[in-house]
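The instructor's notes for this session suggest beginning with a concrete chain rather than abstract definitions. Hand out the sequence below and ask the class to guess, before any prediction is shown, which regions might be ordered.
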Amino acid sequence: MPVRLALRHTLLLVVALMASLTATTLPASAHSGATSWDCIAHYESTHRWHINTGNGHYGGLQFSLSTWRYYGGPKLSGNAYPHRATRAEQIAVAKRVAYTGWSGRAPQGGSHAWPNTWPRCH
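After discussion, reveal the predicted structure:
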């Protein structure tokens, strides 16, 4: 009987260990639904989508006002300043900046717009 009990305890210990390893090795996106834009916001503003630190860059993705206006941020969001726009609105403008352009304006490309953080997140 003691051998069976020891075997049962060992088996339970192995199962518990495997479960804990599986939980810690899943990518962060599997847990949180995070996107590349959330990654950029992590490095640019520590996920503070409504930040205005007075450095001339605003919001979670740290837009300059000129970039925000050039790519239609005020029209898309109804906000003159990026930090007053929602996360989704900021991401929509960021996609214009990085990929699609807007109203005849060419996209900058993500590595140009976010040179330090783009490589970390893509």
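Then share the key points. Helices lie at 2-25, 28-32, 36-45, 65-70, 73-77, 87-100, 110-113, 118-121. Confidence is low (pLDDT under 50) at residues 11-32.
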